[in-house]
Amino acid sequence: MLRFDFFSPEEEIVTTLFQGLDLRFFVKRDDMIHPYISGNKWRKLKYPLQDAYQKGKTTLVTFGGAWSNHLLATACAGAKFGFQTHAFVRGEEVHNTVLTLCRTFGMQLHFVDREAYKNKELLYAQHFGEDPASYFIDEGGYSRAAAEGVSELIEELQDNYTHLFCACGTGATLAGLSLGLGSGLDTAPTAEAPALHGVPVLKGGDFIRDEVAALGITTDHITLHTDYHFGGYAKTKPELIDFIKTFTQETGILIEPTYTGKLFYAVYDLAKQGYFAPKSKILLVHTGGLTGFLGMQDKF
Ligand SMILES: *Cc1c(COP(=O)(O)O)cnc(C)c1O
Description:
The chain is of the alpha/beta class. Helices cover 37% and strands 16% of the residues. The N and C termini lie far apart (42 Å). 44% of the residues are buried. The site of pyridoxal-5'-phosphate has 18 residues, from helix 2, strand 7 and helix 7. GO terms for molecular function: D-cysteine desulfhydrase activity. It holds the Pfam family PALP. InterPro entries: ACCD_DCysDesulf, TrpB-like_PALP, TrpB-like_PALP_sf.
């Protein structure tokens, strides 16, 4: 068995940004789980890696963009748990800090043009189809097994909350939280369970519903806030950067522009608009995400 023990406390957030509101904000510090196997990626990799290990697989093969947290997490997890790692990276060959970290953890990178990248199963079959020791992990770690890993977050909660918020890329994390709340296909969450909210970081974020449903998990109890993408994936605005700077300076908790910055900003903006009933206790899942910061250093 591979050991996936970790520490992720819940902390109350105290910042002037949230002052004067009769609300309380908490953060689930999944960013503290591991410096490189960032937050939700640790949870998402847990069952796929155990499955790979039990099946005697020795090589993990995955996919991502050049600034992907998932690539870095897979590279580091491979090194930690004794797998070789390969990644198909979308687009022309580039050099950046994230890819250098991936290589340093032993990952072999294969750059593929955007057209070829679209068909991941085909890429896998062409390059690894003949290798019985290789193991496919989808882009962003998206899978039912990933959602099952994330669902365990719910059992860890130390307090009761009215709302639970996370950022969404592929939707696997949101799906996992929904599963953990007991809204798997046949059971609805109990009345005192927190309301589940997702903040898509891509434009047109309603697609997240389909991604959750595709994992066999109901979306009935999910609210999506699709207006906080700031122009799209890896796009930002000065307003978001200013918010991140203030938040980080006042709390000592680093958030970044790609995922967690948009999540925290969304909750801040909703709170200012009076979206939450007085006395609400809102928990935000800090899903980690160093690479979103590295990729946008020039904005700070
Ligand atoms: C990958 C990532 C996400 C997106 O998670 P999904 O399960 O793909 O929706 C959110 N936050 C951070 C920091 C991430 O690295």
